[in-house]
Amino acid sequence: MSAEGTWDLSISTPVGKIKAVVEFRRENGLLTGIARGAGEEVRLDDIVLDGDRLTWKQAITKPMRLNLAFSVRIDGDTLAGTSMAGRLPSSKVSGARRDG
Q1: If you ran DSSP here, which 8-state letter would residue 100 be given?
Q2: Can you tell me the distance from the alpha carbon of 44 to that of 57, in angstroms, rounded to the nearest whole number?
Q3: Residues 6+ apart with CB under 8 A from 64
């Protein structure tokens, strides 16, 4: 299973849907990544791909300061899973890999 590429994400939160873009690359054998959304760009941390399960963490400041933990399953060029923000309820995440 490959996570590399650019993914368009939709996160269903209690305050509405949030659109974001994440990019995963392999550098020196390790997965690295960045996320863009709400006018900011943040580095992805603790990225782990185990079979079809992809997890990562990221800290955001917009719309509010939160530490997010994502857990998704990749199925070809789509993914689905959840995002957790501390003690808040989990949010559903879906996404599609961009062509090229």
Answers
A1: -
A2: 6
A3: none
Residue 100: what pLDDT?
A: 61
Domain locations in the chain?
5-97
Q: Which residue has the tokens 């659109």?
A: 19
DSSP string, 1-52: ----EEEEEEEEETTEEEEEEEEEEEETTEEEEEEEETTEEEE-EEEEEETT
Query: What are the tens digits of pLDDT across the range 33-58?
Result: 999 988 899 999 999 999 999 999 99
Closest CA to 57 of 49, 65, 66, 46: 46
Class of domain 5-97: mainly beta
61: three-class secondary structure by DSSP: coil
**Rg of the chain, C-alpha, whole Å:** 13
> Measured between alpha carbons, how far is 87 from 100 in angstroms, rounded to an integer?
37
